[in-house]
Amino acid sequence: MNEILKIEQKWQKYWEKHKTFEAKTGSKKTPYYILVEFPYPSGAGLHVGHVRSYTAQDSLARMMRMQGYNVLYPMGFDAFGAPAEEYAIKTHQHPKIVVENNIKVFGKQMKSLGFSFDWSRQFSTTDPDYYKWTQWQFLQFYKHGMAYKDTIPVNWCPNCKTVLSNEDAAGGVCERCGSQVEQREKSQWMLKMASYSEDLLNGLEDTNFADRVKLGQINWIGKSTGVEVDIDIVGGGNFSIFTTCPETIYGITFFVIAPDGKLIKELMPRVENKEEVEEYIKETAKKSNMDRTELNKGKSGVEVKGIKAINPVNGKEVPVFLGDFVLGDYGTGAVMAVPSHDQRDYEYAKEHNLEIIQVIDCGDISEHAIEKHDYMGHGYKLINSEEFDGMTADEAREKISDMLEEKGYGRRVNNYKMRDWIFSRQRFWGEPIPMIYCEKCGWQPMKEEDLPLLLPDVAEYEPTDTGESPLAKITDWVNTTCPHCGGPARRETDTMPNWAGSSWYFLRFMDPHNEKEFASMDAMKYWNRVDWYNGGMEHTARHLLYARFWVQFLYNIGLVPHKEMIWTRVSHGMILGSDNQKMSKSKGNVINPDDIVNEYGADTLRVYEMFMGDYQMDAPWNTDSLRGCRRFLDKIIRLKDKVNEKEGFTQSLEVLQNKTIKKVEYDTTHMGYNTVISSLMILANAYDEMDSITKEDYRLLLTLLNPTAPHITEELNEQLGFKPICESEWPKYDEEKTVENVKDIAVQVNGKVRGTIQITVDDNEQVIKEKAMECENVMKHIEGKEIVKVIVIKGKIVNIVVK
RNA sequence: GCUUCCAUGGCGGAAUUGGUAGACGCGGCAGACUCAAAAUCUGCUUCUAGCGAUAGAGUUCCGGUUCAAGUCCGGAUGGGAGCACCA
Fold first, then answer.
1. Residue A277, H or E segment
2. What mean pLDDT comes out for the span A485-500?
3. Which residue of A46, A436, A483, A582 shows the fewest CB atoms closer than 10 Å?
4. Helix (H) or strand (E) holding A157
5. What is the pTM of this model?
6. Who contacts A144 (Cβ-Cβ below 8 Å, separation ≥6)?
7. Residues A183-193: pLDDT tens digits?
8. What are phi and psi of A39, to 5 degrees?
9. 8-state DSSP, A512
10. Which strand B nucleotides have any atom less than 7 A from protein CB atoms?
11. A754 touches strand B (CB under 7 A)
């Protein structure tokens, strides 16, 4: 085994010394940018899951370089964030030191696996040279009115002691620690991401993302089309509601407004049951989102007495309720309730004994409401809806919307679930937000020339219960002067979320050492965009969405060449433990890549991870199967003994060789990594059956396997006396030689295989038919029967239909 | 509940996109080499019947389209993922 490690290290040193994988910006070769998500350098080290996607993209990168592309395959580290900070608190080290050490370990591990990264472009998001530009870009957001400070109820994680974005608190649970999130009113920096909803939706058309990735984003953006209707209050005043079902508007029997919204505050002076209403508002505020979902099997709420609202279409006066299922920050914070055709409204009406008016003739609703997708699909007609009676729901939907617009009662609008991006974190280990508060001048941006705003070196970085960042305690750092008036002022003490640095790192890789700009337009135009980006499915609604938003903004202010800078996005499946469970320390099913490299070699691990299954699906670890891959590489080594002195290729292997080149090329570019390996196993088996093979035969196999197993193939290639594979060209196949001259095909009778015949490429349909009829077993099955027709699919199959 | 993906031997998975289902690998069984073990090599390995040629069944289940369905269409069941009182 030591022999293998020696060989692997030898070639790793060779690549490093010869700068084999450094990409030259501006080279005349066709540029191609392959990206894998840069890792968070945790203390646990590299995971076998990293190895899977890095190897897959590495094999693509290595093949394409040999094909003459100028491949950019960079690597860096996303090192801001809570884990490093927590580890630092525990061990009383500065997070900077923790991160530096972890990065060293990760780098060493990656090098031991032979990934062909361009290490000259490496950086960490925590490098001041890098986060200077993250801060600079934040200032651009601010200067273009895209960043603002607002006091809103936000997701607060009591364990991590920080605010979380909606994306990080999906389901009311902290994404990092799993704690239940609380709602707290806090003043936060926000980025106006919601205003990009439509652009982010439309932009997907200019990408080649995998369907499941697109769908994930579409889902999260959550567009719904409907009508906003203005509702007058009896005795003056009004509010608006948003509905996606305007066709049911005649069925309104009450309205429900959000207890956490602004509307109820405005109405308060006119409310007759103030105490009751205020009590309900207080109770709601105490509940987290999760509680709201779980505790309300029944629908809680109180009537807002003294307030009656008017349905504009028929003048009907109905009561107004408070209900915590209505959210203050979605739509208008108020809804019309049509209990006959909405399950939630129905339950609320039952709970509070409210009137139910059926407006769509869809049969009995005494058990439950019949909802939109049912009545629309069935073409049911309207009733109790004045002049719209008798129209189908589909038709009425448009006609009623038209009417609302014509009469000025409302307008068609789109609503989105996606909110603005909560951009403040009350933690130490993040990019400081480069804003200064002055009593006289308010919030002021730092001067760009003063960036980077460095994190101070201090002894304490524990988060605080008060909801203030630990930076707030460092008065030397906090106290500064106002960039506008020069008077005394205080720095913002919150830091950015760790999604900030990763939102544009792929741009920096195009021009990583630029001191004047985050990346030059020339460099970005040369590399054009990320051609192929691999990452986890869990980043679809977060990192990838943030990154697209960030890039679209930069595009709109003229700083990047495309609105979408990422073309293809794919995601790999997880590697599970051998027990089919997610790998975790507590389950004891974690495989450490270092152990595998030491025992079997990096090439074996790489081949195994490519061979283990469908790249896009989860796959369980299996050490026996890994050993099988070691055996395969041993066979490759043994094949060297079969090499003879003859020139050129062996004639009888020609078709298989051409076919294999074609398949390896196609599969490598279509994520069929497992079948790349199996086709090479087939080729190796064919070689093994020969008495001897030529040097060229052998070198072909080594070259095709090289992208996946780069070390051992280089070594064997060198032993044959050839120049290194990584400096050679990829073999070309001849399409004509991928087809056998002679082939066995099946003959079916009535769709059942009854025999096989041998055909040649020259055989015409008539000849094939005759051969099929002469087949002994086929004759038995057609004897005495009437032949209805004979279907001949050239090169594939013959089917004889008989009666 | 909504959205979405998936279902093939003992296991991981192939199937040129409608054309011989089970490639390749793992595991298992039998054999060779060996004093023995490891390694390696050879053969078999979807199920049923048969010594065998062969025949029948078979890609979760039911139905349809087609000369031909793992693949396309409709329905059911089971499982994964995402969102979840979003009006």
1. helix A274-286
2. 92
3. A582
4. strand A147-157
5. 0.92
6. A553, A557
7. 777 788 999 99
8. -85, 160
9. T
10. 2-5, 11-16, 19-21, 23-27, 39-42, 54-56, 67-69, 81-87
11. yes
Work out the mean pLDDT of chain A and round it to a whole number.
90
pLDDT above 90 coverage of chain A, percent? 61
Cα atoms in the Cβ-side hemisphere of radius 13 Å centred on A24? 9
- What value, to the nearest 5°, has the Cα angle with vertex A501 and ends A458 and A546? 135
Q: Judge residue A372's burial from the number of C-beta atoms within 10 Å of its C-beta, 0-12 exposed, 13-18 middle, 19 or more buried.
A: middle
A121 CB less than 7 Å from any atom of strand B: no
Give the tokens for residue A208: 């080649």
Minimum-distance nucleotide, CA of A295 to C1'? B85
Residue the block writes with tokens 């906090």? A478
pLDDT single digits (tens) A167-182: 777 767 777 777 777 7
Name the closest residue (CA) to the C1' of nucleotide B84: A171
- The string of pLDDT tens digits covering residues A89-132 is 888 888 899 899 999 999 999 999 999 999 999 999 999 999 99
Residues 472-491 of chain A within 7 A of strand B, judged by CB, are none
A108 conformational bin, left if phi > 0, alpha if psi -120 to 50, beta if neither: alpha
For B1, which residue's CA is nearest its C1'?
A343
Nearest Cα residue to A443 out of A483, A476, A486: A483
Residue A141 contacts strand B, CB under 7 A: no
Q: What is the pLDDT of residues A463-483, one digit of tens each?
A: 777 777 788 888 889 999 999
For B13, which residue's CA is nearest its C1'? Answer: A613
Task: Check if the beta carbon of residue A388 is closer than 8 Å to that of residue A237.
Answer: no
Nearest nucleotide, C1' to the C-alpha of A296? B85
A612 CB less than 7 Å from any atom of strand B:
yes
Answer whether residue A211 shows pLDDT above 90: no
Quick one: which residue's CA is nearest to B20's C1'?
A746
Helices A48-66/A602-611 angle, 10° precision:
90
d(CA A631, CA A628): 5
pLDDT single digits (tens) A226-281: 999 999 999 889 999 999 999 999 999 999 999 888 899 999 999 999 999 999 88
- Spell out which residues of A between 308 and 327 contact strand B, using CB within 7 Å: 324-327
Q: Which residue is nearest to nucleotide B85 (CA to C1')?
A: A325
Question: Side chain identity at A133, as an amino acid letter?
Answer: W
Cα first-last separation, chain A: 66
Q: Is the CB of A171 under 7 A from strand B?
A: yes
On the 0-12 / 13-18 / 19+ scale of CB atoms within 10 A, A670 is: exposed
Residue A240 beta carbon within 7 A of nucleic strand B = no
- Please provide residue A731's backbone torsions phi and psi, each rounded to the nearest 5 degrees: -65, 150
State whether the beta carbon of A222 lies below 7 angstroms from any atom of strand B.
yes
Strands across the sheet containing A435-438: A442-445, A435-438, A488-491, A479-481
